[in-house]
Design brief:
By secondary structure, the protein is mostly helical. It is built from 7 helices and no strands. The chain has a domain of about 110 residues. Helices cover about 40% and strands about 0% of the residues. Keywords: Mitochondrion, Ribonucleoprotein, Ribosomal protein.
C-alpha cells in the first residue's frame, strides 16, 4: 500500500498542474499586459499638433458629388425649376418654323428623307482621286475638295451613330440590325484615300517650294525680300559683256525670211563676164 502523500506536496502538485494545463489561456501574454492597462498613455505617430477645423466662411464648403452632399437650406441657385422652359407636347400648339430647302445644314444629312442611306445609295460612289490627277489642280480646287471630303466623312459618321443606336433598341420597339455598315466602311475608305492623296500633293508642292527657296538664297540675281507690291523687282539679272554683245547682235538681226532678201540684178555677172544688163548692151 502506498504511503499517503504529504499535504504540502499535494498542494504543490495541484498548483503545477493548474498552471501547466494544455488548454489555451484567455489571458494575454505578460509582455502585452501594459497595453491593456486602463490608464495607459498613448502617443500618436505624427509629432505635428492637431489644428482645428478650417472655417473660412465658404457657403459651398462640404458640397461634394462623391459624398452625395448637396445644397443646404441656406443655399439658393440663380435658376429655378419653375423658370425653366417646358416642351410643348401638343402638336396643335407648336409654332411652325419654315426652313429653306437649301439650308447648309442639309448637306450633313442624307439626300433622301430617311435618316440613313440604303446600301445601294452608299455604294453609289466612284473611286478615290490619285496624286497624278490632283497635280493638275490649283490651290483653291484642292482646298474645296478636301473640305468636301471632311463633310462626307461627317455624314458617314452621323449615319453610323444612328445605325448603332437603332441596333441597340429592342426588336419589340422597332429596333434591330440594319444593313449598310460594310458599304459605309468602303465609302469612308475611298474618302480617306482622297484626303491622303490631297495631302501628298500639297507635300510635294511644299518640298518644291522649299527647294526653290533654298536655291534662291544662294542666287545673287534673286531678291527674296523685295516688296513686289511697291514695284520692287524680285529678279535682277546681271548681264556680262559677252551677254550684252550677243543681245545686241540679236537685236540687230533682221528676222525676216529668205524670200524677203532681194538681189540687185545689176550686180550679177553675165555670160561674157560683164555685169547684168549693161554688159549685154
Amino acid at each position: 500500500m502506498a504511503a499517503p502523500m504529504h499535504c504540502s506536496s499535494a498542494s504543490l502538485l495541484r498548483t503545477t498542474l493548474l498552471y501547466h494545463s494544455p488548454k489555451p489561456s484567455a489571458l494575454p501574454p505578460l509582455f502585452l499586459t501594459p497595453a491593456f492597462a486602463a490608464n495607459s498613455q498613448t502617443t500618436s505617430f505624427s509629432t505635428t499638433p492637431r489644428s482645428p477645423a478650417r472655417r473660412d466662411g465658404n457657403s459651398s464648403r462640404g458640397t461634394s458629388a462623391l459624398r452625395h452632399t448637396g445644397l443646404n437650406k441656406k443655399q439658393r441657385l440663380s435658376v429655378r425649376l419653375s423658370n425653366l422652359p417646358r416642351p410643348v407636347r401638343d402638336p396643335a400648339r407648336r409654332s411652325t418654323v419654315e426652313v429653306s430647302k437649301d439650308h447648309p445644314l442639309y448637306a450633313f444629312l442624307p439626300n433622301s428623307e430617311s435618316a440613313i442611306d440604303t446600301p445601294e445609295e452608299l455604294s453609289a460612289h466612284g473611286r478615290a482621286w490619285t496624286i497624278t490627277e490632283l497635280r493638275n489642280k490649283d490651290w483653291e480646287d484642292l482646298y474645296r475638295l478636301y473640305w468636301v471630303c471632311v463633310r462626307e466623312r461627317n455624314r458617314i459618321a452621323t449615319q453610323e451613330a444612328e445605325r448603332e443606336r437603332i441596333e441597340n433598341v429592342p426588336a419589340a420597339l422597332g429596333g434591330g440590325e440594319i444593313y449598310g455598315a460594310m458599304e459605309a466602311a468602303m465609302r469612308d475608305k475611298a474618302v480617306k484615300k482622297t484626303m491622303a492623296a490631297i495631302r501628298g500633293t500639297l507635300r510635294e508642292r511644299w518640298y518644291a517650294w522649299e527647294n526653290a527657296r533654298v536655291a534662291a538664297m544662294d542666287d545673287e540675281e534673286v531678291d527674296l525680300y523685295a516688296n513686289t507690291e511697291n514695284g520692287e523687282r524680285a529678279y535682277l539679272p546681271k548681264e556680262d559683256d559677252a551677254g550684252e554683245q550677243a543681245a545686241n547682235q540679236v537685236r540687230g538681226l533682221n528676222l525676216g525670211s529668205e524670200d524677203d532678201y532681194r538681189t540687185d540684178p545689176s550686180t550679177l555677172q553675165g555670160p561674157d563676164g560683164g555685169r547684168g544688163a549693161n554688159a549685154r548692151a
